[in-house]
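Input record, target 12 of the design panel.
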């Protein structure tokens, strides 16, 4: 694969999602299996939209690791940067749709996950410099070796357009909130775009109000701040102005992965030369489709599916 359009870095897992909706783990009878992990899903989402995407991550040297690699290849994601750890096992993530909008999650990443131990290579550095888009999941900055690797890739890129920091705050990955804030602030100095919800913005820049969060992000030299507001839509902010892009209503089956579908579609829109508002409108449609389906990676839509949903909903395509 040459002329990579999107490089992402961060966690990966084998996802096991309850097939019975609205019931707690104790009453779940069966699970559907796929792959997951936010930056992995973003790469899959972009590949499903026809983009050349790769993910920097790692799996275990066991059958689940082989499954992840095979699944990524099936989705069309370049696996050259998917390492294999000799002793740690590929993590598992269980989800109960209780409720579907905010599923209960249970992670198995003990004592540590392979994706926390990714060592930087010269090929990674070269690819981070040359890829058209570079997407960093904020959670990976907590990784024992992956955190320094992500920082090295950001530094090598030199704040090239578009370098995207997904704030992706997961408390379980951090010793405390202050550690996450320090890492996010340092990473923002290398980013040109930041994406996050109210809580993630508060952790990163101390503001949960959408307008104040956008102000704080742009003040750090970013060209674009994308603040996700759940059912209220998405605030798109730049030095040129602000637009609140409304959501695309759907019946939610599983709220997990919608943000990742949004991220992959946002990258697709930016790669297509669309304005940020146009890209976010398309990304909202992609996220809505993922939310209407059970799994994450397998739920990522094609461009035709997104355009059909936007046309049917009356939202601009």
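The sequence produced for target 12 reads:
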């Amino acid at each position: 694969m040459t002329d990579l359009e999107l490089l992402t870095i961060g966690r990966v897992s084998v996802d096991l999602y309850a097939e019975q909706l609205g019931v707690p783990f104790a009453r779940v009878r069966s699970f559907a299996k796929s792959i997951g992990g936010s930056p992995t899903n973003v790469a899959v989402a972009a590949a499903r939209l026809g983009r050349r995407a790769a993910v920097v991550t790692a799996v275990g040297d066991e059958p689940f690791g082989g499954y992840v690699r095979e699944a990524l290849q099936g989705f069309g994601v370049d696996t050259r940067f998917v390492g294999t750890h000799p002793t740690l096992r590929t993590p598992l993530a269980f989800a109960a749709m209780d409720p579907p909008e905010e599923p209960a999650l249970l992670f198995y990443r003990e004592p540590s996950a392979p994706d926390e131990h990714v060592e930087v290579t010269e090929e990674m550095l070269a690819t981070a410099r040359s890829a058209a888009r570079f997407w960093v999941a904020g959670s990976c900055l907590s990784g024992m070796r992956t955190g320094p690797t992500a920082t090295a890739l950001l530094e090598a890129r030199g704040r090239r357009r578009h370098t995207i920091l997904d704030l992706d705050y997961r408390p379980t990955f951090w010793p405390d909130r202050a550690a996450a804030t320090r890492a996010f602030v340092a990473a923002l100095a290398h980013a040109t775009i930041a994406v996050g919800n109210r809580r993630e913005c508060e952790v990163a820049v101390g503001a949960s109000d959408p307008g104040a969060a956008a102000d704080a992000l742009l003040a750090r030299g970013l060209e674009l701040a994308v603040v996700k507001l759940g059912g209220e839509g998405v605030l798109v902010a730049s030095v040129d102005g602000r637009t609140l892009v409304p959501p695309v209503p759907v019946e939610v089956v599983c709220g997990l992965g919608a943000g990742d579908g949004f991220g992959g579609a946002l990258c697709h829109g930016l790669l297509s030369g669309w304005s940020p508002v146009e890209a976010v409108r398309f990304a909202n449609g992609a996220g809505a489709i993922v939310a209407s389906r059970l799994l994450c990676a397998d739920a990522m839509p094609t461009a035709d599916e997104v355009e059909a949903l936007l046309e049917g909903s009356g939202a601009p395509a």
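The CA atoms of residues 59 and 65 lie 5 Å apart.
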